[in-house]
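Potassium transporter: structure, please.
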Amino acid sequence: MNSPLHQESVENGSPKQNLEKASCISALTLAYQSLGVVYGDLSTSPLYVYKTTFSGKLRVHEDDEEIYGVLSFIFWTFTLIALCKYIIIVMSADDNGEGGTFALYSLLCRHARLSVLPNQQDSDKKLSSYATEGSADTWDSAFLKSFAEKHQKFRNILLIFVLLGTCMAIGDGIFTPAISVLSAVSGVKIKASELHENYVVVISCVILVVLFYIQHHGTSRVAFLFAPIVIAWLLCISSIGMYNIIRWNPHIYQALSPIYMLKFLKETGWEGWVSLGGVVLSITGVETMFAVLGHFSALSIKVAFIFLVYPCLILAYLGEAAYLSQHHHDIESSFYKAIPEPVFWPVFIVATLAAVVGSQAVISATFSIVSQCCALHCFPRVKIVHTSSKIYGQIYIPEINWILMCLCLIVTIILRDTNRIGHAYGLSVTSVMFITTCLMTLVMVIVWKQKAVVAASFLVIFGSIELLYLSAVFFKVLDGGWISLLLSWTIMATMFIWNYGSLKKHQFDLENKVSMDRILASGPSLGMVRVPGIGLIYTNLVTGIPAIFGHFVTNLPAFHQVLVFVCVKSVQVPYIREKERFLVTRIYPEDYGMYRCVIRYGYKDLQQENYDFENRLVSEIVNFIETEGENEPTLRMQICTCSGNSDDEAVDVSEQMLSYPNQGETTMQSKNIGVLISQDGHCKRPHLKEESVHILRAREAGMAYILGHSYARAKKSSSIFKKVAINVIYAFLSRNTRRPEVVLNVPPTSLLEVGMIYHV
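Here you go.
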C-alpha cells in the first residue's frame, strides 16, 4: 500500500524534479530582471561604436575592407572579452555571491595577508562568510602568499591598483549617462538637420538633470519598466540588423573571419591602430555584469547574455556594417541612417529610453561602489539612504548623486561630441578590464590553487588584448581622454589621502593606549565615583584602552558604573550574518564593570538606520555573562526583568527566540524587545547572575555616548606634500564629511565629545 507521501510524490512529481523546476523558473526570472539592470549600458553601445571608430583619419580609408576589419574586431573582442573572459571565467570568482573589483580584492585578502585594513582579528576567520577552506597550497600559491606577507610595498601597490580600478569604475558613472543620452538625442538631427548642435546639448542636459533628480526615489519604483525597455531595444536593433543584412549585404558574415583584422591593421597602419579606441566601446558594460553579481546569480546573468544579449548585439553590428558597406558617406550617423523610415521615430524613442535605463544602472552601481569604499575606510563618510525596504542593497547617496550630475553636465557641455566623450569613456573601461585581469591572475594562483602557467596564460591572452586597446585609447588623451585621467587621479588621490589619514589615526591610537597597569592600580572604582548608568566609549581599537579614556580618568570626578568600549569595524567579507555581528569580551575582573563590544560589518553591509542598538548591545552583554565559561557559547536566552514599577520589561538576549513546549510558553515581540510569556499571561524570570542584573539596572539608569574627535596635523619635519595632504586636504575632508556620531546614529542628547590632536 502506498503511503500518502508516496501518492503526493507521484501526483506532483518527485521532490528533486520539483526543486529543479523551481530552480529553472527562478533562474529565468532573475535572467529577465537582470536585463534591465545589468545590460542597459552594454546594449546601447551600437549607438556610438562605428561613429567613434571612424571619427579620426580612418575616414580617408573608407571602403569595404576597412568596414569588414572593424566588424571583425568588434565580433572577436565581444566574443573573447565579454563571453569567454567574463561570462565563462570571471563570473566564477565570486565572493560569497558578490562580484566586482572589491570582491576579487577581498578574496585575495582572506587567502593571503594582503589587507591593509586595521583591527583584523583571528576571530574574524571564524565567520561563516570568511571560509577559506579548500585544497592545500601549491608551491606557486605558497610563494605568492609568502612574498605578499613579507613586502609591505607590494600590498600598498595592490591597494593603489584596486583604488585605481575603483576610480575608473566611478568614472563610468560620469561618462555613461553623458555619451548614452547625447548619442540617443543626436538622432533627432537626422530628421531635423537644421537643428543646431547647441539645442541637442541643451536637450541632453535637461534629460540628465531629470535623470539625476529622480534618483532619490530609488530604482525599486521604476525597475519593473527597465527589463521590458531593454528587451524592446534588443529586439529592435536585432530586427533592424537582420533587415539591413538581407537588403544591403547578405555576405557580411564573411567579416567574422579573423583574417580581416590582420588586413585592417596592415592596410590602415597607424590610423587603424588608433581607431581601435572606438572598437573597445562595444564592450562597455561588461564589468557591470560582474559588479552586480550579488543582486542576481551567475546562472541568470549567463542565460540572459548567451541567449538574448549576445546574438542581438552581434546582429545589430552585422546589420550596421552591411548598411555602411553600401553607404560610406553615412559613417557619421550610421546607426540612425540604417533605421528604415517607417520605424524611425519608435526606434528613436526606445533608444532614448534605453539610454536612460543604461545610465540608471551605472549610477546605481556607482552608489554601491562608493558605499563599499566608505566601509573599507577608502572614501570620506557620506550619507547613505536606503531606497527600498524590501530589496537589500538599493541605496541613494545625495552628495555623490549631485557631484555626478554636475560632472556629467560639465563633460557634456565642454566636449559636446560623442567622439571625444567616447575617447574618455574607452580609457576608463579598458583600464578597469585590465585591472580585473591582473586581479584574476592572482585569484587563480592564490585562491583557486591553479598552476602559474595557467594563470600566466590567462594574463597573456586577455591582458594582451586589453593592452592593445589601452595603448590605442592613450593616444586619444589630448582629444578628450584627458578628462578620464583627470577625474580618476583626482578621485584616487582623495581616496588614498583619506585612507592614509585614517590609518595614521589608528596608528596614533595604538601608540597612545592607556597603560593596563594604570587601570589596575586605580582599583575597581578607577579612582572616580561610579554613578548609575552605562557609558559607551567609541574607539577604533579592538584591544587595549583608548587614549580618550585617560582624559576622563584624569579630568572627570565621576563615571558610569558600567563601561563598554565599542568598536565598529569592517571585515573583508561582503556580508556578516546578524547573529555573528557582535563580539563581546570582558576587560579586567568582574568588579571593574568594563566590557568590549566589537561590531563587525562586511564591505556591502549597510548600517541600519532604525536599529534598536542599545537593547541589542545590552542583550549581547548579558548573554555573554550568562554563557561565559559554558561549553556551548551559542546558547541564547530570553530574559525578563522588572523595573521599579509593577510592569515587566524585557530584553531579548539574541535574535533567536526559544520556545519551551514542555512548559507551554511562547515568545512575542514588544517594542523590539523579546518577552517570554507563559500561556496564563505571567512573565517568567529565568535565574540571572548577579552581574547580569547589575547590567540591566544600569541600562534602566540610561546610556551616554563618548566619542573622540581627532584633528590630524603633519609634523613640522614632514615634506611639503605631506603637509598639504594632511593639513589641507585631509583636514578639509574631515570637516565636510558626515560626522561619526551621525553615521553611528548616536542620540545628540546623550553625546559627549573629546577633542584630540595627533601628529603624523
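Notes: The first strand starts at residue 385 and ends at 386.
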